[in-house]
Specification:
alpha+beta; 7-stranded antiparallel sheet
Length: 302
């Protein structure tokens, strides 16, 4: 998979480490794993400074061979568009990223394509979510109505999983790199989610890889969701498994699960991302053992 004759300069533009203290721990953990992988592959990694994030991307990207933006969903599209103006993008295109950032719009599109999603909730305990949210931030279980900039979903009791997927080119550089190869499923991950006394959801990490009884169905639903939304590069699809496999969120970016996956995967995630960005999605990867991971990047087990 590796092009040994072409070592490159790669911009890893991670937003939260210097601009969002609430998510900085997860951001630091993700970029640490990516930086180490690109380094082992012989590439030079460039990181933004502490100045204005958009300005940093504009300053650094032109001198890089490729780049990847990691940012909260509602900011991802804007920064990715800037990156794509200056260098080759290893992640999701800015148009699908913008779509996935609107959680209500995403829900409607998935429902229209026959993908199970939670229904609207008007009475009793409901899940209240920001329309433009990121992960579990701002998500709560409550009997109150959704406020401005929020929407409500029925609360589904079930098991929480995510599916980590790497997809090839669909839009953006499609003419040059589209091959039609199907997305690669890296792993199914069990999510550890805590609901506080105030009803607020807290993501604590998880376990990967896991093989639940309904794994083929989970993978099929998640892959269809990512494909319908046009996701490219690495993405994470969150599901709740109950009477159906319900898609509850689609993250068109690197997720914290990668911290655990990288600890189990024989292949380098850097090589997988580079290959997929040029339409050469690998047929599979090899995972050994199973680990638990938290939002600080701590990995145990295997």
């Amino acid at each position: 998979m590796r092009d040994k004759t072409r070592m490159m300069k790669v911009l890893l533009a991670e937003y939260t480490t210097t601009h969002d203290p609430a998510l900085a721990r997860e951001g630091r953990a993700m970029v640490s794993v990516l930086k180490a992988s690109f380094g082992r592959c012989g590439h030079t990694v460039v990181l933004p400074g502490t100045g204005d994030f958009a300005t940093e991307i504009e300053r650094l990207a032109p001198a890089c061979d490729m780049g990847l933006v990691i940012a909260p969903d509602h900011l991802l599209s804007r920064f990715t568009m800037i990156l794509e103006q200056h260098t080759h993008n290893l992640g999701c295109g800015f148009i699908p990223a913008a779509l996935c950032a609107n959680k209500l719009r995403t829900e409607k599109i998935l429902r229209a394509h026959g993908i199970p999603v939670p229904g609207e909730c008007t009475i009793g305990k409901c899940i209240i979510k920001p329309v433009n949210g990121c992960g579990a931030l701002g998500v709560r279980l409550a009997e109150s109505k959704a406020g401005e900039g929020e929407f409500s979903q029925e609360y589904i009791e079930g098991e929480n999983f995510s599916v980590s997927i790497v997809a090839g080119r669909i839009v953006g550089e499609a003419c040059e790199y589209f091959t039609g190869k199907p997305p690669l499923v890296l792993a199914v991950n069990r999510q550890e989610i805590e609901v506080g006394a105030d009803g607020k959801f807290h993501y604590l990490g998880g376990e990967t890889p896991v093989h639940p009884a309904r794994e083929p169905e989970i993978i099929a639903v998640a892959t269809k969701a990512a494909t319908v939304l046009g996701c490219q590069g690495y993405c994470g699809v969150d599901v709740v498994v109950a009477d159906n496999v319900y898609v509850v969120d689609v993250n068109p970016r690197i997720t914290t699960s990668l911290v655990g996956i990288a600890a189990c995967m024989q292949e380098e995630i850097a090589e997988v991302l580079i290959a997929a960005s040029k339409g050469e999605v690998p047929d599979g990867v090899h995972l050994s053992g199973s680990v638990r991971f938290d939002t600080d990047g701590k990995v145990t087990g295997k």
